[in-house]
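sorry for the late reply, my laptop died twice this morning and i had to redo everyting from scratch. anyway the thing you sent over, i finally got around to it. pasting the sequence first so we're on the same page, its 287 residues, then the predicted structure underneath. double check i copied it right bc i was rushing
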Amino acid sequence: MNKTKILASIAFAAILSACGSDNGSLPELANNNSGSISPFDTLVVKFKSDLVDLDKLELNSNIVIDHGEIVYGKTICKEKKTTGKELCFIGTNKTAGRSHYFDYGKLNSIVFKKLKNADGYVKDSIVFNFYTYTILDTEPNNREDTAGDIDLIGDISTGVTFAGIIDKEIGTSQDGFPSYDTDDFYKLKLKQGDIISITVSNKTTPIKARFYGSCNSQNKNECNDKIDTTTVTKKSIALIDTIKPGHLQGDDPVSKMVPFYINVFDKNINERSNPYTVTVKLIYRKS
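ok and here's the structure:
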């Protein structure tokens, strides 16, 4: 082989080395979206291969989001790493109790730029999508008259999911004592014979929920008032109930829509804040 060919071979080998190994490939997402998440969740974006120089990634340079702002999780994941297959994020918005959350009720996109993996390959741009549920829990929300209105955010006949948070200590009251958020209320209108499904889910400490309406019958068995008896390990509540006749008054027609309430609560003020999601679905309604 002459000198020119040898130099050409060396140059070609150098190019291959810069681009990555023969057995590697460009950084690629394990999935292009996470579906729907609670705005209070930690977002975990997973890749098919190990990324490197994670400690050098910068927001608004290597990582750009189209709505609001995010915190890049150098320490949000289980441990601080410079390599790995996961990137973690939380929103920069904060509740009164200092819990982080993403902008909510919308489709969000994160664009990753110039990501490099352990094979030495660099991807110019990768897009990851995620949708955040609406936060219906707007403080004050600790009484029936301040309850969030489920009917305003979607059609329960197809199912409605929203987020909330039991924020625990949220400040100081006028008398100088700590102020606590331990109860959230939501309302919707239903009629006799409706069958409703309510699911409350969370990822931290156990939570409880009550579904009820004002009872206008002397016989309490003719009214809906169901409370979940959560165990210390249970973090998902499922209530299914058929609307009874005791919520009507006098000559009210059977078809009258009357208000009902969902009370989500966690009275343990010594535990951390407790974010959750609620899914409400009308299973049956007589036409």
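The radius of gyration is 26 Å.
thats about all i looked at so far, will dig more tmrw
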